Amino acid sequence: MDNMFQRSLEDLIKGFRLQLLGESSFISRALEEIRREIKATDLSTKSTALHKLSYLAAIHGVDMSWAAFHAVEVVSSSRFHHKRIGYQAITQSFHDQTSVLLLITNQLRKDLNSVNEYEVSLGLECLSRIGTHDLARDLSPEVFTLLGSSKSFVRKKATGVVLRVFDKYPDAVKVCFKRLVENLETSDPQILSAVVGVFCELASKDPSSCLPLAPEFFKILIESRNNWVLIKVLKIFAKLASVEPRLGKKVAEPICEHMKRTVAKSLVFECVRTVVSSLSDHEAAVKLAVAKIGEFLVEDDPNLKYLGLHALSIAAPKHLWAVLENKEAVVKALSDEDPNVKLEALHLLMAMDSYELCAKSDPLFCNEIIISVLSVCSRNAYEIIVDFNWYVSLLGEMTRIPNCQRGEEIEHQLIDIGMRVGDARPQLVRVSWALLIDPAMLGNLFLHPILSAASWVSGEYVEFAKNPYELVEALVQPRTDLLPPYIRAIYIHSVFKVLVFCLGSYFSAQESSSGSSSTVAFTYESILNLVNVIEIGVWPLSGAYDVEVQERAKNVLGFIGMAKQDIAKKVNLQDNEAEACRVTAFMEDVFSEELGPISANAQEKVFVPDGLELEENLGDLEEICGKFLKPVESDSVPCADKISFSVSNLRIRDQQEASSSSTSLPPKASSSLLAEHRKRHGMYYLTSEKNDPDSNGTPNDYPPANDLASEILLDPLDPKRKAKHRKSRPVVVKLDEGDESRIITSQAKTKQESVTDDESLSRAIQSALLVNKKGKEREAKGIQI
């Protein structure tokens, strides 16, 4: 009776269309109605209410987790219509933490054993969407049975579910893998397509586990005429060829035959990509692939033209001649109407010019190319750059080009992009970490400014770091003693920022752990380990000769001492009055203010204060400060007055010291002592000349002072050219927020778990293949006997 007056889903949608205003209030009334109807005992009424709730959750984002048990009730109905609505709600709302998830195990088993193939299909689709470790373990026998079903519709669905089952429960490989391999020999194109798709995904995770099946895949490559199946098989061989290079010689000829005879552009492109990425040693196949790329580039369809450019970008690292042959088409693509085609052509040209051309050019021309690329890309606040992640990666790759001496320009752009483009900061942190751990960077004096920028970026945007512990290890590594003191000071300050961020995350997580179930990013052991690593790495710097390095190191050590004391006293740190907690919160507020770019003309815009005379003649400065500017006349002058401001004063003082020493020591002794002193401390002397009165005829048998410094500071290009590339730029409008999600520790943990699952799945597949191979050998021996 209740069902007679119940509004259906169609009525709900019509009501929405009539609501010009007040849509939220209409949704609220509809939810109240659904909550009342879903409690009914009649399954028809309950299923209709659940259907409407699923629609609201899918279209308007309404939470439907509260109806999980009602979905289980609807699934248990014997009517297919109700069962379909219940499974749809389950796949839409259930997850690993759903409390009633285990209640559907028996219902799934019942539906998987049903004689109705459509009910079996509903159960398989639900398992593929919400399958957990327990569900995959309990339902593996049913999936194994369905893999041998006589109904093509069911067997195809069961094959697709196998991938989810293997991923959640790797031991299921022992049960289902043999029958999955048997399905490779089926004549049904739908089942074969599903099986090849499963093996394509398995090969992408671990190619070596699928290597024993190469003969079966080769047979499919030769005999199949289904383009979709062939594309998947080509993807598999592209992965297998990286593990077993001898496969390339075997599959090169069939792939070339497919490229010659087929008219399907999708299959041709997949053949081209397989050849240029995995079969690059086979010259005939590569030439044919490059010819097909040329056909793509002259097509009017922008999609095909984009695919041709993309294939060229894959071939460029190993086959630069392929790019040079199609250079005119690539340049012409820069004026294409499609923005994706223009962007791909730009990436291809810049990669070609900046990598291969730079590597094969002399240092002068190499740096001219680099500075040209940097100038063009940064013009008008990077107006031609659309993908800043790509450009940041390009800057990182430029540092690895031989003879690169443009460290200052790259340093400026790394910092400038970090301050201007918020969405590029995660990629900046990743690239900066890669630069910090590169040992070649520490040994190249021209690239030290880039390390300065990388260390600053790592500390300023540490919240985007995947693993702050790795950043700390890169910043306190012992080889940083090769860097100048001013860069080491930046390293220490970045370490301080990382420490403040980690302690702040730890303290805030500890304070909120009792009232919420949020994941704690740092445990007591991990934060203590991080603090100890920083303390061990920074401690030697507290005795550095450079005062700035020494001061920053002692500040960090003092902060660590205070933090370790409070952490040792209270592990949970729920006392908000802890000194380290308060100081950390204060420093977080200090570092939280975002730094932005500053115009080079900012100083000109500052108003001159009243009473400050900037145009007045300073001719009487000598009368006021004359006594401080007089040259030194004797050794009796106090130390504070011995500071001289010109090279001539330094020479006068050297002459006076030499004359005074010559009066008290014999000429030979004085000259030998002076020579010995200059040998030991030559870098503090000016270079000696033939007519230099300081030499006193002493033979110049030691290297000229500061020769190394002059070589380091020597710019192979005109130094005046730098100013042309440092014009003031307008502030770049940042990209829309949300394009790049922050990487947190929980995501890193999920990734590690997935890697572990992949390894266990690979081991299971290999063991299954080994058992299968031994079984075939035993059968062969039995036949022979």
From TrEMBL:
Highest taxon of source: Eukaryota
Keywords annotated in UniProt: Membrane, Protein transport, Repeat, Transport
Record-annotated membrane-spanning stretches: none
SUPFAM superfamilies, alphabetized: ARM repeat
Annotated ranges, domain Clathrin/coatomer adaptor adaptin-like N-terminal: 25-480
InterPro entries in the record: AP3_complex_dsu (IPR017105), ARM-like (IPR011989), ARM-type_fold (IPR016024), Clathrin/coatomer_adapt-like_N (IPR002553)
Disordered: annotated span: 687-708
GO cellular component: AP-3 adaptor complex; endosome membrane
Compartments, as annotated in UniProt: Endomembrane system
Gene Ontology BP term (one): protein targeting to vacuole
Keyword Membrane: yes
Pfam families, sorted: Adaptin_N
Assigned protein family: Belongs to the adaptor complexes large subunit family.
Record-given protein name: Clathrin/coatomer adaptor adaptin-like N-terminal domain-containing protein
